[in-house]
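During the practical work, I worked with a single protein chain and the tokens that describe its fold, as given directly below.
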Amino acid sequence: MKNILLLGDSIRMGYDSYVKEKLANRANVYFSEDNGRFAQYTLRTLSDWKKQLSWPEIQLVHWNNGLWDCMHLNSCIAGCPPEKAGETFSPANVPGGLHFDEDPLTPPEIYRYMLVRVLTRIRQLFPGAEVVFATTTHVIEEMAQGAYRSNAEIESYNCVARETLIPLGVRINELGYFAMQKCRHLHPEGDWVHYNAEGNSLLASEIVDFLEKENLI
């Protein structure tokens, strides 16, 4: 059976066990219990995960980074003023009284650079593996508190990922578009980013469907 590695942030942590269950007896699915967070964190930690978890030879990597990268921090919760004026892509949706850094955690040009570095590391650690990149899922902007993300900015980061990775031979799973169409109302109560069990199961099914259509499993 093919060995599949799932890499990514807390969205991946929501669907990984469902993917493993849906691919039982068809593929071996591996993932770290750690949150891949932003692209630079994944780059820093990926080789450690491989060593610590004793992953076998991997034939397919399904990967995402972006949700943390496009995040604007709310430095006011730490008792200091925002880094800049706090203007964001969708300022009308920012909850009243909150101010966020103008720049995202990973500005777009650095995100582009880091995607290439993460891809390079994947190919160093798992030579010959097919690589799939999953686009970033949308959020409920007006519920932002400790950090802010706009869906317009998420889509701009997805565009950066497509433009950067497709020419490098990476297949794109439009998970973000699927979630927007099928999972928009499947967030746990009070959660503006993640999905409930039904949503995570739907995301996992979409991933399996994509891998099947691409003849990767």
